[in-house]
Every structure is written in C-alpha cells, then in structure tokens.
C-alpha cells in the first residue's frame, strides 16, 4: 500500500479568529502595550515574519533553485520562534538585541525597493518590541506560530481576518487625527478607473494599502500565466511616509498574495518631484492627506506660483507631472479644495493647470459624513485623464440613503450606494450620460469664468430646502460657516506667503 502524503496544516476562519482573540488577550496583559495603537503593530510584525518565512523563504527554493534566503540562520522564524526551549527571558533578549537589529540592518541590491532584504530593513528599522514580559512574548509567538500560510485558502482566510484588524486600527488611528478610505469608496474608484493588465499603478499616499489591494483583486482575475502575475505585482507601487502604515500595508499586500510588495517609505511629494520620465505611471489611485501642512523645504521644491503648505494641492500638482500622457487618475479631494478661486489663489492655479493639461471628465460628490466619525469634511472623487484639455465636467451627487442623516462606525457607507452612479457612468467610454436629479454638466468656459470654482452644487436640489427640518438647516449653516472661516484662514496665509 502506497504511503499517503501528509496534508498541509491549515487554519480555518473560526480557528484563526480564536487564535487572534487569544493573541490580543495575551497582549492586553503586558504593561508595555497601551491600546490598539501598540498591540496591533506588535501583532503585525510577528505575523509578517511568520508569513514571510512560509510564503517567501520556504517557497523560494521550490520556485527558483538559485534562490538566496533573505534571512540567514539563526534569525529565521523556523530557527527561533518554533524552539519550545527558548525561554521567555532568552527570547525577549534575542528579539530586542539580535533579531530586530539584524533585520533592520539587512541590505539588498541597490535601487531595488522590492528586494526582500530592502523590504525587511525598511520595515524593521522602526519596529520596537514593546512587550515587557518575556513570558507573555513567548505565549504570543507560540500563538502566531499556530497560524499557517501554506495554501491560497490560508492566505485568503488570514487576509479576511487581517482586514478586520486593519479596520480596528483605522478606528484607533482616526481618534489621533488620521483616517483611511472606506472600502466602498476605494472599490468604486478602482472599478471606474477601468484598469488593464500591464498598466503601472501608483498610490503615493498608500496608508495601509487599500487601493493597491483592491486593484490587485480587480486585475488578478484577468491573469492567465505566472509571467502576468509577476508583472502585475511589479506594476503595483505605493509610497508611504509613516512607519506604522508602511508596516501594515506590507503585511496587507503580502497576505493578499503579493510576495514582494513594491512599497517605498518616503515623502511622496519629494519622491514625485525627483521622478524622471521613466518613473511616470499609467494610473494614480489615491486619497492624499488634506488639511495638513508640509514643511517649508518640501514646498520650495515646487515651482513658483504653486508653492503652498496645503498637502492636497501639492499632491494634485505632483500627480499631474507623475502621469504619463494618456494616464488617468482617481483622487479624493475635500470641498475646500474644489472651492478655492481667484487670481491670487494657488488652488485656482493648480485647478487651471489640471483643466488645461487633463480632461477632468467626472466629479463624484460624496454624501456628508462618509469619513465620519473622524472628519465631517465633505469630500469628492475627481476622475481625469492626461493629454487633452477639459471641455466640460460631469458632476454626480451620491445621495444619503432614505431616512439617513449621516454615517457612523456601526452604519458606514455601503458599496451598493454607488450602483446608480455606476449605471449612469456609461462604461469606459462614458457613453449615453444624461442629466437627472443627481447628475449635471458644466462647461469649462463657465468654470473658468467662476475663477475655477469646482464646488458646484446640484442645480436640481434647489427646491429640497422646503423638505428639510430646521435642525438640518442649522447644522448645514454651522458647517458652512466653519468651512468659510477655514478657507479665509488659508487665503490669508497664502496672501502673506505671496508678499
């Protein structure tokens, strides 16, 4: 009787959820970890090393006989994490004094951001083991080692659970002033960008990698060969300035099947300003930070007349130069960016540059509170193609669902709310668009006359005031007054900068 092959260990979704719960319970006992902003990164870098060992190090020699391990003994997961005799005190000392410094000091091929050694060193140069108890660290490592990444089913299972962890991470980060793109929004932006295999795709403010994961899931369905799969992975590029989102994005992409994420940890504005023609891309998908201010040395890298500390304007300007001729972009921008007008407004100058160099064909106006509870700033999705000037701009307003006054953590926006807009869109060539209760068109000549104001209200909604409650009208008035004060403050700052 022929011997049977030993089946690979797998981790069911229920079992994985149980392990993750136990891991988080273990971390809660440690005095060195305070809240999810400490616990989730701790779990993430351990998960990354376990996944990297199974997905890259152990699988590498089977795919390439000349594969050189990125991590040498005794720093491989299989060397230290699986040793039951490695006591808590010894383990903590090894992790703190040997493992993390070793990983942070790895050096791969120069100029190859996707070299595993470069990826590892970029991640671990900012990683710290925050756990104070060696015993609890041993328990946590044992739990992570129970998770398997051998099969595509394992990867999909872990990716599902990891996305729920990321959502909690975003909730926690939102309390500290950061927020991320809701999944329905980035899914819609990717879908309406009509991506194709072979195109280079960039998110210069990639956060935890949501746009890149969504693009990969969209395009992997078209892949038929290993060559196409490798090319797809190489074409997905991200830039992230902060160490924590960079770690989370690397883990997110790895779990979704991208074994060598092409992520760069850098200031995207400087990176794009230094880019050459060879660095230009076919597609940009992004939600850049807005409302913040860049340091003076970054601002001065931009041309005179376009220098502002407002990050959203700088990103938009940089993206215009980053796109190839014929390239396209989908970007999130706040109402304040759309409104800026006047000869002395840097925002108006950048919008003029946008409309002269690109076809700004569609602006989707999102409902109030899509990014709630982190910010109430109204936002918009701009879609444009580089190479031809804008002749007219179509606007489409996504309404709040009937009976809803906003969104919350427990009742966020749903992807189904974009379906009427998808049907109206007219496919890749945008054919058959018609004006209606939520859609209207404005010529570029009218926009130019207005001083490049793109914050254009739905003309079909004027009579809606009579149906609104007094409370809604007062809330809207307060919101508008706050926006006006904010815009006046920015206008005053820009005026002073021009003196």
Automatic annotation (TrEMBL):
Its EC number is 2.1.1.72. InterPro entries: D12N6_MeTrfase_N, DNA_Adenine_Mtase, DNA_methylase_A-5, DNA_methylase_N6_adenine_CS, SAM-dependent_MTases_sf, T1MK-like_N_sf. Residues 16-143 form the N6 adenine-specific DNA methyltransferase N-terminal domain. Keywords: Methyltransferase, Restriction system, S-adenosyl-L-methionine, Transferase. It comes from the Bacteria. PROSITE patterns: N6_MTASE. Residues 155-461 form the DNA methylase adenine-specific domain. One of its GO terms (biological process) is methylation. Belongs to the N(4)/N(6)-methyltransferase family. This is site-specific DNA-methyltransferase (adenine-specific).
């Amino acid at each position: 009787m022929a011997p049977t092959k030993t089946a690979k260990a797998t981790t069911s979704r229920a079992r994985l959820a149980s392990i993750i719960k136990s891991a988080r319970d273990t971390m809660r006992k440690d005095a060195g970890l305070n809240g999810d902003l400490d616990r989730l990164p701790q779990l993430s870098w351990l998960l990354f090393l376990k996944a990297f060992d199974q997905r890259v190090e152990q699988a590498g020699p089977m795919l390439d006989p000349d594969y050189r391990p990125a991590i040498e003994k005794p720093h491989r997961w299989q060397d230290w994490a699986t040793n039951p005799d490695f006591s808590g005190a010894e383990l903590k000392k090894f992790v703190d004094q040997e493992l993390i410094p070793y990983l942070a000091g790895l050096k791969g091929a120069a100029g190859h951001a996707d070299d595993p050694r470069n990826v590892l060193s970029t991640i671990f140069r900012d990683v710290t083991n925050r756990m104070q108890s060696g015993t609890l660290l041993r328990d946590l490592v044992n739990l992570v080692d129970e998770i398997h990444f051998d099969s595509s089913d394992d990867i999909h299972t872990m990716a599902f659970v990891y996305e729920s962890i990321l959502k909690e991470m975003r909730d926690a980060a939102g309390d500290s002033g950061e927020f991320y793109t809701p999944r329905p929004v980035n899914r819609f932006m990717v879908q309406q960008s009509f991506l194709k295999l072979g195109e280079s795709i960039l998110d210069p403010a990639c956060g935890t990698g949501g746009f890149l994961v969504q693009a990969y899931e969209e395009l992997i369905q078209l892949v038929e060969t290993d060559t196409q799969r490798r090319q797809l992975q190489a074409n997905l590029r991200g830039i992230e300035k902060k160490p924590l989102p960079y770690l989370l994005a690397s883990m997110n992409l790895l779990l979704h099947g991208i074994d060598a994420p092409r992520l760069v940890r850098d200031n995207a504005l400087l990176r794009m300003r230094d880019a050459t023609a060879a660095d230009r891309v076919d597609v940009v998908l992004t939600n850049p930070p807005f409302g913040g201010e860049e340091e003076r040395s970054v601002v001065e890298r931009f041309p005179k007349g376009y220098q502002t500390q407002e990050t959203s304007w700088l990103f938009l300007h940089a993206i215009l130069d980053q796109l190839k001729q014929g390239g396209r972009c989908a970007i999130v921008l706040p109402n304040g960016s759309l409104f800026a007008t006047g000869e002395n407004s840097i925002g108006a100058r950048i919008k003029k540059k946008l409309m002269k160099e690109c076809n700004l064909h569609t602006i989707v106006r999102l409902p109030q509170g899509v990014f709630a509870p982190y910010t109430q700033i109204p936002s918009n999705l701009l879609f444009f193609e580089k190479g031809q000037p804008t002749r007219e701009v179509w606007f489409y307003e996504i309404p709040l669902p009937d009976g809803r006054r906003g969104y919350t953590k427990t009742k966020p926006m749903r992807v189904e709310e974009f379906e009427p807009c998808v049907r109206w869109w007219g496919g890749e060539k945008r054919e058959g668009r018609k004006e209606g209760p939520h859609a209207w068109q404005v010529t570029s000549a009218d926009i130019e006359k207005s001083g490049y104001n793109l914050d254009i209200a739905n003309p079909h909604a004027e009579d809606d005031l009579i149906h609104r409650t007094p409370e809604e009208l007062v809330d809207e008035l307060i919101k508008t007054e706050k926006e006006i004060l904010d815009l006046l403050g920015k206008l005053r700052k820009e005026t002073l900068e021009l003196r």
